[in-house]
Amino acid sequence: MAYVSDFNSVARSGVPERVRIFDTTLRDGEQTPGVSLTCSEKIEIAEALNELGVDVIEAGFPITSEGEAESVREIARSIAEIKSVSRAEICALARSNFKDIDIAVDSGVDSIHVFIATSPLHREYKLKMSKEDVLRRAVEAVEYAKSRGVIVEFSAEDATRTELDFLIQVFKAVEEAGADRVDIPDTVGVMTPVAMKYLVSRVVSELRIPVSVHCHNDFGLAVANSLAAVEAGAQQAHVTVNGLGERAGNASLEQFVASLHYLYGVKTRIDLTKLREVSELVEKLTGIQVPPNYPIVGDNAFSHESGIHVHGVLEHPGTYEPLMPEAVGMRRRIVLGKHTGRHAVEDAVRKLGYDARGEEIEEIMRRVKDYGDRGIKVTEKLFGRIVAEVIGGREGARKLEVGEWLVVTGSRITPSAWIRAKVGGRDIRSWGWGVGPVDALSNALRSVEGIPNFRLSRFKLNATSKGTDAPGEVYVKIESNGITAEGYGISEDIVRASLEALLDSLNKVMSDENSSGEDTE
Prior knowledge:
Strand content: 15-25%
CATH architecture of the largest domain: Alpha-Beta Barrel
Helix content: 40-55%
EC number: 2.3.3.13
CATH topology of the largest domain: TIM Barrel
Radius of gyration: 27 Å
Keywords: Acyltransferase, Amino-acid biosynthesis, Branched-chain amino acid biosynthesis, Leucine biosynthesis, Transferase
Shape: globular
Structural class: alpha/beta
Subunit structure: Homodimer.
CATH superfamily of the largest domain: Aldolase class I
Distance between the termini: 35 Å
CATH class of the largest domain: Alpha Beta
Strand order of the largest sheet: 1-2-3-4-5-6-7-8
Protein name: 2-isopropylmalate synthase
Number of domains: 3
């Protein structure tokens, strides 16, 4: 469900009923400075994108290296083996020359994305070619690619800084040469939505084939420009997961698709409930973290702290949320701090399984605000500790506790961990080894009798302030016996914070397992 403005109906007139999603995370996204994916990682992302429902996966630029060509071949093979009529089209990038095209086609892809720069800047300084030479090269490349039996999408690189009459001349020529789609790249992100809408409307009016756009985010307008293009009749847009890409990145898949669905009522093949899952996968494999305030899939996208906002959301989510978080694979979080009101504290205490008295709520509020005034972030873990201290454990006692623990690591030493745990009142000691201190602690916990086997699917560490003595906040997500749980820990010792986060998530899993068992008896 979405709670959006009726005024958006003004922008919906004339837009296509359905828009194709061309994902270039594995090509333009990998050009993000500092990002380098292995072949297996690319395949994992490609399979996730296919499951997400993108129409086209641009798998790479095969001419750049043998490793890149091999990755494109493996992605094409992997997706081709998926038994589904709705699988994604696999595409490879190629410059407008026969060698590039041959290597791309021989990678086993379904389509080729052929490009050549058309702007005066590129013609003079990069290509050193005349308009006539650029036009001839574009036509020859499209004709040759079509002769190889693949779908062809043609891009006029730096289209938004190209003379309009020449741009239209090039597009009409490649259409005649057999191109299946044309693409308008805003290569350095200099367009405004009004200008993009005008440009796309002019191109659409001159062509019979579908028009696509590829917007960069140098001025933060990539999504806005892509939406403006759709308003003007564009039937496809190039996007990347988490907005990755060169410089400031590309149009964000998550923001663009959610906007299409909820603000324009435009359909795509995307399963929006998988947006967060794919975002997290790409975040993990690229090492580029999504900012907390990132729209749709950022940690704070559906988080609330202000007392007025929390009160409203608890009464009706639409008061301060434009759509339900579950619709995009997210969950609502009530963040506690100095702006927190009574409703938020009562709700958070109730979710921890406690039935607090009035004076206990007041004391919990006082402590939360005190932490906030001192600049300390009140995480879910810290809040749980406050509640346990105030209420005294008369309800909701944790099933798993670790009293003593020791981690040994160093040069030429296999990291190891020893823990003394209490599970259901039993005192158990356990050892574990791993590739690092956190892995060793995880393995020590796995060895404790009574703890369910679990897999760590996400680990995130953030400093809460500056300095080497800053408290570290650790967030983990674990999976165990079909149950997914998140855990939080905070400490100046990041190993301790990691252990607290693991214990937090394991206690949630064990509580869920116990609840499930009680329901079935």
